[in-house]
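Sequence in, structure out.
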Amino acid sequence: MPDDSTQSVLDGFSEALSAIPTALRKTFTYDQGRGTLNWHFTTHTAPWQRGLSRLNENTNGLLRQYLLKGSDLSIYSQKQLDAIAWSLKTLLRK
């Protein structure tokens, strides 16, 4: 794409998707880049509107054991953040 404008992203998605059979185009996940700025269909305060919301909310709750909501992550070293990530990644879950 020539840039990350909404029109360029739309044109790029349309071109890429046209090569995929219609039956396989049932779901599509957008990132949160500038090019998709106008395409957000969920409310950021309503996590149940997003896919995998239960997993997201559970992980957020687990993160709160280590980091308070709104924490400035720049005060933590990469080694500390990696340790938190490893701890959550290896946590036994149902």
